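3.2 Worked example (two chains)
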Amino acid sequence: MHIHFLQHVSFENPGTIKDWALENNHAITYTYFFEKKFVLPNLKDVDALVIMGGNMNVEEEEEFPWLSKEKELISAAIDAGKKVIGICLGAQLIATAVSCKVYPASQKEIGFFPVQFINDALNHSFFNHFKNPYAVFHWHGDTFDLPANAQVIASSAVCKHQAFLIGSNVMGLQFHFEMNEMIIEDMLQYDGHELNEEGKYIQSKQQLKQGYCHLKQNKKDFFTLLDNFFA
């Protein structure tokens, strides 16, 4: 299988998704939107599109003009029946690509906080290995309306639409299953000033790092989810 990653900033890379892909001998390629001469893939050459996070928002096309091209690519991939995964900004871009609104959430979530998988999700073959509540890493301030024909998979106290599934080919995850310690440390370096903001769901750097104990289980469970999603 050929998986193509859409990466928006240098410090939010595919992390454990790349680990899973290499373990399973899948081909991987990238579009780096943070480079001036980025290259979009020919959808005929790829089987799956994975859309990463980033510190911009979906409406900042004036500052990041490539966003409009990316939205068109995502829409075309969905229409073509490709497997598509969006993470954080990636999930918001999927929502935008299928004509849903993206807007600021009531509060930011930054750190390790629990999500709750809904009962239907726990009975779904993709997600039936998860247990509630489930602690996972977050770094987002926006949320979105649920796309048409989408199934809510997980919610949190702040964000009703933490994860969704459209059919069996399109999955949006507002939280970050793909994280490892190195990526989080890079995010703290580049965007750590956001931890100084006031908010019930913004952890201190010390609290956040205490959550690293969840990463090993997150990786194991995410690998099972990827096995199921791409089966």
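3.2.1 Second chain
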Amino acid sequence: MKPNYKVNMVMNNNVVLAINLENKNEVILLGKGIGFGKKKNQTVYYPKDVIERSFINVSQTLKSDYYNLIQQMDLQVMGVCQEIILMAEKAIGELNDSIHIVLTDHIGFAIERIKQNMVIENPFLDEIKVLYGPEFELAKEALNRINESIEIVLPEEEAGFIALHLHSARKNLAVKTTLKNTKAIKKIIEFLEGELGTKVIQDNLNYRRLLTHLRGGIERVEQGIHFENPLLTTIKKDFKEAWRIADKVGEMIQVELNLKIEEDEIGYLCIHIDRLLRLKS
């Protein structure tokens, strides 16, 4: 078979940086065993069915950033990060191209911290598990892959940060935006616990629904999406205590995130808060 790729760099047995000989595009290729025994500048033939994913970096800035990472980072780490991204895209859909830079850079930094015996702390881990459930499950699998491939022990706290990166790339958000929203939600939960006079139970279905609604409500406002609440008048009349608390939460969101939460959205939030109040009584 006529060669269709020229190998630029082998990251691991499953990930290769190569040039497509037909169109001269530089691509990252992922497929089982495609890097095994391959050398730099070797021309090879890869059938389409062995390439699980090919990533073409169309942005010159991203391409430059990626090459900078290659110069600084262990290629084994680069390779396993690409495998993690492929795994995530198969599970939750296409991710923003920036994930190839930001997640790889983050994981590389986390590995260095562990090697220097630094502790990784994640004060938002409990919230992340609920808010970004599918991403967190993937992040735990990613953690296992990293720990096995690099022979290191990254803690569960790191899975929380990986989940934030995956969610951000899934929603085309900056990681700092997802983190800021998560911080705000944690503050709101602490406020609600003060109002309820008790710690919320993490596994409680009503608590999980509340967190999911808070995240969804914030994202809807950010995207300019508005839902009318046909029960708003009844909610304000029948759930006075829950409405008072929900209204305070709306004020907190405006202060923390500079987002105006409309009464229709507060009404839906009120229903979730009322459920928690009923559990308390």
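3.3 Remarks
The chain has a mean pLDDT of 91.
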